[in-house]
């Protein structure tokens, strides 16, 4: 860590300490983190779950095929 990085880190730490003092040493995250409301998308939950399950099954099948291929190749090496 060079001198410039150290100075920047010290400045950030002092600013954080000052913010804690200003908030009466409260560690409640809501005082420091801006809460952004997530917009609910219009996709039906059940439909989305079926889509995700189908994708998961496809990825799992692909993983099993790759695992079998790796084991086959590993057997050839040994």
Describe the structure.
There is one protein chain. The chain has helices spanning 3-22, 45-77. The chain is mainly alpha-helical. It is flat.
Keywords:
78 residues; 2 domains; flat
Mean pLDDT: 87
Overall shape: it is flat
Tally of individual helices:
2
Rg over C-alpha atoms, rounded to the nearest angstrom = 26 Å
Query: Can you summarize the main beta sheet?
Result: none
Short description:
The model has no long low-confidence stretch (mean pLDDT 87). The protein has 78 residues and is mainly alpha-helical.
Topology of this structure?
Layout: H1 3-22, H2 45-77
